[in-house]
Amino acid sequence: MRYTRASSVFCVLFLASTSSVSTQSGWASLFNGKNLDGWKNYGAEKWTVDHGEILGEAVTKAYGYLGTEKTYKDFEMKGKFKAEGSGNSGIFYHASIEGTDIKGVQVEVDPRPNMHTGGLYETGGRQWIVWPNPDGEKAMKVGDWNDVQFSVRGNHIVTYVNGVLALDYTDPQPKFSDGIIALQLHAGGEGKMRFKDLYIRELN
């Protein structure tokens, strides 16, 4: 294709405009699609980049986590997940990890239907905090890509699964208020999970 000076100027202005819109929206990418820069592997499980996706594969029967290097307090997060194994998973927030000992709250991700994907589970504390509502329980698509989105504002947590409101919950006794985000591979050696299009927007 032949470019003129005018078309070059237009391209520059267009890119500047789209960049500005992206900045104004406040969403930042958690995963660059190329490598795991900004993330840390906890445990012996295998985390790689495959076809522009984060692939977590269980190689032992222990838990494994891939955590962000940065911590987050109040934020919104969105992304896509797909289960290829039978072991469940989750997205932790306000988490801290020593070895493979994690403390924090997990937005549940399970490959099976009616197993509370979108619910909240606290590790290092109360265990199940709240299950998703009936519509949220039915929103997960087995064997396919699923959208998950959630917001954390103090003790107010809202989760969506495939655009369906799964829960809107105000926690009367929050135990954790800040920490990393971590993707989980459940113990048992059956986990194989894919994640992509991970974005976060920090809230004031």
Question: Can you characterise this structure?
Answer:
- The protein is mainly β.
- It has one domain (28-202): Exo-inulinase, domain 1 (Jelly Rolls, Sandwich), CATH 2.60.120.
- Helices cover 12% and strands 49% of the residues.
- It is built from 2 helices and 15 strands.
- It has helices at residues 5-25, 134-137, and strands at 28-29, 39-42, 46-50, 53-57, 64-72, 75-83, 89-98, 101-109, 120-123, 127-130, 146-153, 156-161, 164-170, 179-185, 192-202.
- The strands form 2 sheets. Strands 1, 3, 4, 6, 11, 12, 13 and 15 form an 8-stranded antiparallel sheet that branches. Strands 2-5-14-7-8-9-10 form a 7-stranded antiparallel sheet, with no helix packed on it.
- The longest helix has 21 residues, at 5-25.
- It is globular and about 40 Å long.
- The N and C termini lie far apart (46 Å).
- The relative contact order is 0.24.
- The model is unreliable at 1-24 (pLDDT under 50).
